[in-house]
Each structure stands twice: as structure tokens, then as C-alpha cells.
Design goal:
elongated, two-stranded antiparallel ribbon, 46% helix, N-(1-d-carboxylethyl)-l-norvaline Dehydrogenase, domain 2, alpha/beta, 10 strands, disordered C terminus, Rossmann fold, 2 domains
């Protein structure tokens, strides 16, 4: 397929080479920042497009890979009867239906950064489409990129994206906080690496609810209060520690863990979390 990419950010830096590797022809890339577009296009030998009226009308598919708040603006500038896709986890497909008869979503469930090219063949791709004919082409495109392609509605995709923020963005922020605290006292962050790896491994290979540990789940108020006191100079982190500890504690009440495993919540404790 001939594919045009609208956007030159983190997703584009992995999507463009993935499309090329799958045998597609990336006919151009447009972005708001000319220097970013040139850098990406020079890296992957793609035609940079720096003016909206120069966007090719001959592509089979147009990928909008901008930030969520730029999708409507991008869609309103594209004039085509061909398929237009976005890659957002939270933006409804109806945003594109306002502008195009043939449209859809290919949402890669992964975190992206410019410096690291993601192997799309291992990334779950969630698809949604405007009609059955378009669905066939979107599915064909998606399966050329990944072996894990699934249909998912906009509503389901939104809750998945929310969950991903907790599992990825918030988790990464917690690691960032840990690194900052240790750096303040000149403690080697590498000491935490085995712990972080084991935490992720256990959560993925088991039910993470059963793997919860720490002073909050034990209701160790002495340690909790001591940690809060240590965070007096970091008011925001103190709030985070307090709120997350409370959440862990309430979660453990809703899902008490016994010797034989997890005891599902019942009507009496439903809604605690």
C-alpha cells in the first residue's frame, strides 16, 4: 500500500520503519515542525512534506499519528476519499467519521519514544472501522505489521488506555521518583534494578493482586508514618505516598488474600475500592 503519515512524533519514529519493513511505500510525512519532519524523513529516506497543500492525494491510507488534541485539526485539513486512520487509544472513531466515509483506528498497545524503535510485529494492534469493506483493508494492513490484531470498540479502547496509563506511565513515574530520591542521598539506583525486574515478572506471571507487598497491605502504620515524615520536604510526593498507600489498603480490604489465594469481593465489601 501507498501510505502517508500525518505527524512526526514518537509514534511515527516506529511506525514508518514498521510500514517499510512490511513492504509498504511511505509516500510522505507531514508535521507541524519542519525540522522534526526533515530529521525523520532523512533517517528513513521518505519524502518530507512541509506544506498542507503538498500532501499527496494518491495514498491508499493516511495515518494520523499526532497527539490526541491534534487529530481533529489534522482530519479537517485532509481532503481524500481514501482510508484515514488514527492511532489513539482514547479518541473515538466518530471523530474521523465526521470527515471521512472510509476511516478507522489502528491502536498499538505500546509506549513509544523517538530514541527506541519498537518492533511492531510483537505489538498488539487494536482495530476499529467505519464499514466492512474498509475493515478488510485495515485488517490486511494491521496483520502485515503485527501477528496480534484484534477488533475493539472505542469504549473498550478508552478503558484499555486508562489502564495503560496506570500500568505504564504511572509505574514509570514511580521509578523516576525512586531514582530521584536515591540520587539526593548518593545511593546507587542500580541496587533497585533486581527488585524492579522481579516486581514486573511476578505481576505478569501471576495475578498482581496476589503479589502485593509492602507496609500498606500489612497496615504497618509505624513504617507508613515514618515514610511520610521523611517526605516532608516533598509535599507532592507525600500526597502520592499517602493516596497510593490508602488505595493499596482499601484494595486489600475489597480483595482479601488468604492462604489458598484471593477471596473475591462480595456485596458487603463491594464498592470499597
Amino acid at each position: 500500500m501507498n501510505i502517508f503519515v500525518f505527524g512526526s512524533g514518537n509514534v511515527a519514529w516506529s511506525l514508518v520503519p514498521a510500514l517499510q519493513k512490511a513492504g509498504h511505500n511511505v509516500v510522505g510525512v507531514y508535521g507541524r515542525t519542519a525540522s522534526n519532519v526533515r530529521e525523520l524523513c532523512n533517517h528513513f529516506s521518505v519524502m518530507p512534506v512541509l506544506e498542507l497543500d503538498k500532501i499527496t492525494p494518491y495514498a491508499d491510507v493516511y495515518f494520523i499519528v499526532t497527539a490526541d488534541n491534534g487529530i481533529i485539526s489534522a482530519a479537517s485539513t485532509l481532503k481524500t476519499n481514501h482510508i484515514v486512520l488514527h492511532t489513539s487509544g482514547t479518541t473515538d472513531i466518530n471523530v474521523l467519521k465526521r470527515f471521512f466515509k472510509k476511516c478507522g483506528v489502528i491502536y498499538p498497545v505500546q509506549t513509544f519514544s523517538k530514541s527506541v524503535q519498537v518492533d511492531f510485529s510483537k505489538v498488539p494492534l487494536l482495530i476499529e472501522y467505519s464499514d466492512e469493506i474498509t475493515a478488510q483493508k485495515i485488517n490486511m494492513l494491521a496483520t502485515s505489521l503485527s501477528s496480534d490484531v484484534r477488533e475493539m470498540s472505542s469504549a473498550q479502547r478508552r478503558i484499555l488506555h486508562l489502564s495503560a496509563v496506570f500500568a505504564c506511565n504511572f509505574a514509570n513515574h514511580m521509578v523516576s521518583v525512586s531514582k530521584m530520591l536515591m540520587a539526593k542521598e548518593d545511593v546507587d539506583f542500580a541496587l533497585l534494578e533486581p527488585l524492579i525486574h522481579e516486581t514486573v515478572r511476578k505481576a505478569l506471571e501471576n495475578d498482581p493482586i496476589l503479589c502485593q507487598s509492602g507496609p500498606a497491605v500489612r497496615n504497618d502504620t509505624r513504617i507508613l508514618n515514618y515514610h511520610l515524615e521523611m517526605l516532608n520536604q516533598y509535599p507532592i510526593l507525600k500526597k502520592i505516598y499517602s493516596y497510593v498507600s490508602e488505595s493499596i489498603s482499601e484494595f486489600s480490604k475489597s480483595y482479601p488474600v488468604g492462604v489458598s489465594g484471593i477471596i473475591p469481593k462480595n456485596k458487603e465489601n463491594e464498592g470499597i475500592f
